[in-house]
Design goal:
The chain is α/β, with parallel strands linked by helices. The chain has five helices and nine strands. The chain has one domain: Glutaredoxin. About 25% of the residues lie in helices and about 25% in strands. The strands form three sheets. Strands 5-4-3-8-9 form a five-stranded mixed sheet. It has a two-stranded antiparallel sheet with strand order 1-2. It has a two-stranded antiparallel sheet with strand order 6-7. The radius of gyration is 17 Å and the shape is globular.
Amino acid sequence: MLHVGSTAPSFELPDARMEMIQLSSFRGKKNVVLYFYPRDGTPVCTREAIEFSDNEEEFSECDTVVMGVSRDDWMVHEEFCDKHGISVRLLSDMDCEVSRKYEVMMEHSANGGKDASGNGDANGALRKGMQEKVRRCTFIIDKKGVLRHILHDMNPREHVGNVLGLVRQIHGH
């Protein structure tokens, strides 16, 4: 299980320009904010990407790069970035390999909490009609590759500001 103080799992994923991004390439050079989100185009995901982009200079002043990860393919990311002026890197994790490494996958019901017969089972767990979904989660990784903060269930309106505050603490501002 991932926890603060553990080494961030390594990965290599394509961004919206099909450039392969390796987490290890930032080691010793940059802190990394790695945020996972369900998909491009939803209101919260759009707001989050725009706010991270609007604050990219402040993150850069703290030797920090921001990257978002979702299951969307690189072409969807490219269109989303162009449409909304997104400048942070958005990475494509279509097979959810990295999302699983970072333990951000969760099951949810695709049919309103009922199985194919219209009933949930006795434990409330569903066998049929379940799908995996990426849970919103942000990881702040320092220059040594160590997880410094893991943020779940953030208020979308305060998320970017809170992350920037934590990055400033790491950087010594």
